[in-house]
Amino acid sequence: MNELWVLLQYLFLGLFQGFTEPIPISSSGHLLLLRYLMDLENLKITFEGFLNFGSLLAVLLIYRKDIVRLTANSLRYIFKRNKEDASDFRFVLFLVIATIPAGLLGVLFEDWISATFSGNIRMVGITLFITGIALWIIRNLRGHKGEADITVKDAIIIGLAQAVSLLPGISRSGATIVGAMLLGLKQDTALRFSFLLYIPVSLGTMIFSVSDMLEDTGDVLWIPSLIALIGALIASYFALKWFMNIMKSGNLKYFAWYCVALSIIILFILT
């Protein structure tokens, strides 16, 4: 019975992480809130990073055609200089540029962020409020810039927005989409750029997490962890599909309301 309970706990954590990861409500902030409410102090940051791999697999599945196209056309441009493939090559290059700020700041300040904000539920309330206001600001924006219109400046700004999401409570998808739409990107372009940008960041997080888990094999429950990973994959897949429909229908305001309401509950009731 105890083993079954552990499996159910891990499955719940995987589903919870997977569902909150793609939508703009901050999975890291919600996991901190869950740890606070359920007294899960033994939930390690490395395990959270491991679960991100499930979300990564979901993103790869949903955007597989874009990934194949961008990879093939970029390689063809590099080796054959086919001008028709230049726009796809530039798009991939801008994804690389946008990855740098979060990657660099993550390496430099990851330990400080973990030490400062781990368990700081009040800070999550503040950052969720910021996320909600940012989503409210862009709720009616539609944009006019497609993939071919993105500039180096756009890539850098979106990358800096992603770096801000290192703080728990600041949604990664929310921050990058807000940044992209304020720069005039169309909704579908902003969404695609945001989640393709998630791939290198998630890969880096997963590599560090698995490395830490392998060094700590005595405390790792691998079968429950794999079940949690599968749960995260399934939940992320359907959550991202749902979020894509929300974006098309222009209903970001609901996420804004949710983030603000939750922040008020945290700040004035839970703390």
From TrEMBL:
GO terms for molecular function: undecaprenyl-diphosphatase activity. The keyword Ligase does not apply. It catalyses: di-trans,octa-cis-undecaprenyl diphosphate + H2O = di-trans,octa-cis-undecaprenyl phosphate + phosphate + H(+). GO terms for biological process: cell wall organization; peptidoglycan biosynthetic process; regulation of cell shape; response to antibiotic. It is found in: Cell membrane. Its main location: membrane. GO terms for cellular component: plasma membrane. The keyword Cell wall biogenesis/degradation applies. Its EC number is 3.6.1.27. Pfam families: BacA. InterPro entries: UppP (IPR003824). It is an enzyme of class 3 (hydrolase). Keywords: Antibiotic resistance, Cell membrane, Cell shape, Cell wall biogenesis/degradation, Hydrolase, Membrane, Peptidoglycan synthesis, Transmembrane, Transmembrane helix. PANTHER family: UNDECAPRENYL-DIPHOSPHATASE. Catalyzes the dephosphorylation of undecaprenyl diphosphate (UPP). Confers resistance to bacitracin. Belongs to the UppP family. Bacitracin is thought to be involved in the inhibition of peptidoglycan synthesis by sequestering undecaprenyl diphosphate, thereby reducing the pool of lipid carrier available. This is Undecaprenyl-diphosphatase. It comes from Salinibacillus kushneri.
